[in-house]
UniProtKB/TrEMBL annotation:
Organism: Bos indicus x Bos taurus
Lineage: Eukaryota, Metazoa, Chordata, Craniata, Vertebrata
Keyword Cytoplasm on entry: yes
Coiled coil regions in record: 85-119
Name of the protein in its database record: SNARE-associated protein Snapin
Top-level lineage group: Eukaryota
Its job: Component of the BLOC-1 complex, a complex that is required for normal biogenesis of lysosome-related organelles (LRO), such as platelet dense granules and melanosomes. In concert with the AP-3 complex, the BLOC-1 complex is required to target membrane protein cargos into vesicles assembled at cell bodies for delivery into neurites and nerve terminals. The BLOC-1 complex, in association with SNARE proteins, is also proposed to be involved in neurite extension. Plays a role in intracellular vesicle trafficking and synaptic vesicle recycling.
Gene Ontology CC: acrosomal vesicle; axon cytoplasm; BLOC-1 complex; BORC complex; cytosol; manchette; microvesicle; perinuclear region of cytoplasm
InterPro entries on file: Snapin (IPR017246), Snapin/Pallidin/Snn1 (IPR028119)
């Protein structure tokens, strides 16, 4: 890997020196990673939807088991199974919350990247090159 002070290389294979080279490299890297981030976001969304469906099915099954337990003439002890279902539901909710937080962080990161890319593009278009680190 080249050091931070080395020049970037343009599409034609010629080196691009200074801040413009770093901006070009950063923009290219962001464009390279954007499809993966979007795919990850769509997969997280699909998993969250399936977890909501699973949670609903667990609730329905627990309700049905309680109803069966009340209707039975013979005393069947279904309470341990209901407890297991409710424990599984709790874990599903926990994983769903973790996924929701990760998806929100990913959304904020994607927004920040788009904002920084637009800012750098505007600077390049205007011919002003920043000497410091990116703005926040």
């Amino acid at each position: 890997m080249a050091g931070a002070g080395s020049a970037a290389v343009s599409g034609a294979g010629t080196p691009v020196a200074g801040p413009a080279g770093r901006d070009l490299f950063a923009e290219g890297l962001l464009e390279f990673l954007r499809p993966a981030v979007q795919q990850l976001d769509s997969h997280v969304h699909a998993v969250r939807e399936s977890q909501v469906e699973l949670r609903e099915q667990i609730d329905n099954l627990a309700t049905e088991l309680c109803r069966i337990n009340e209707d039975q003439k013979v005393a069947l002890d279904l309470d341990p199974y209901v407890k297991k279902l409710l424990n599984a539901r709790r874990r599903v909710v926990l994983v769903n919350n973790i996924l929701q937080n990760a998806q929100e962080r990913l959304r904020r990161l994607n927004h920040s990247v788009a904002k920084e890319t637009a800012r750098r593009r505007a600077m390049l278009d205007s011919g002003v090159y920043p000497s410091g680190s990116p703005s926040k």
